[in-house]
Design brief:
Belongs to the bactofilin family. InterPro entries: BacA/B. It comes from Paenibacillus elgii. The chain is built from no helices and 16 strands. The chain has a 16-stranded parallel sheet that branches. 36% of the residues are buried.
Length: 240
């Protein structure tokens, strides 16, 4: 179906509709869609629930939204709270609120200022986080830049350039990030250029590694250089 034959789906107030192919989908108030959605723009304000898959060029969530199938979009913007039950495929994922992903995430750019939970793996070219996150699988990105505002964790972290810094709570983030312990916890961290603060890990492996304040690392394996700050705890280190 080409774009000229697509109609808009608009739900205002309280209502429901079936899935299908649409030009734009706009939900204001409280709306439910039963089935899959294929559209150009998906915008929701208030409370929305989509029982199937969502495929759109642009997705914007204000308020609270639940999507129970996979999500595929070039541009996803979350300004409220979203729960995604399936896998998420994206080019640009921007979160200024809270996102819960029960599957895995795969795409180009993640820009997080808030709270992100991923039950599977999270893969991107760039991962910029100012907030807190929990990734139960692998966090893999070319450039990983993390500013810790709350307790964060990933099973494994892999990238070319990895930077982790602790930040304070002088921001609006404190309204939905109640965690006081701004630390990163991981089993393994592996990259070329690594700088860590307030990080607990069993293994850190890379070429040029700096272990900063607040770190507790069981084993560091480095190829070129290791720079430990005073007060950083490293049980064992070796050049490989």
């Amino acid at each position: 179906m080409d774009s000229n034959n697509r109609r808009d789906l608009v739900i205002s107030g309280s209502g429901s509709s079936s899935g299908g192919s649409y030009q734009d989908v706009k939900i204001s108030g409280e709306g439910k869609v039963y089935g899959d959605i294929d559209c150009f723009q998906f915008k929701t304000n208030g409370i929305s629930e989509i029982s199937g898959q969502v495929k759109a060029k642009f997705i914007q969530v204000n308020g609270v939204s639940s999507m129970y199938g996979s999500v595929e979009s070039e541009d996803i913007k979350v300004y409220g709270e979203v729960k995604l039950e399936g896998n998420v495929s994206y080019l640009d994922f921007k979160c200024r609120g809270s996102a819960r992903v029960q599957g895995s995430m795969n795409g180009d750019r993640i820009d997080l200022e808030g709270d992100l939970t991923v039950a599977g793996d999270c893969e991107a070219e760039t991962f910029n986080a100012k907030g807190a996150f929990r990734i139960d699988g692998l966090l893999n990105a070319g450039v990983i830049d993390i500013s810790l505002y709350g307790a964060s964790s990933a099973q494994e972290i892999g990238g070319e350039v990895i930077t982790v810094r602790k930040k304070g709570f002088k921001s609006l983030l404190k309204s939905f990030l109640p965690m006081l312990d701004a630390k990163l916890d991981a089993e393994t961290i592996e990259g070329d250029e690594i700088y860590l603060e307030n990080t607990t890990a069993k293994v850190v492996r890379g070429s040029r590694i700096t272990i900063g304040p607040g770190c507790e690392i069981d084993l560091v394996e480095y190829k070129e250089s290791l720079n430990p700050f005073k007060g950083a705890k490293i049980q064992e280190y070796r050049q490989i």
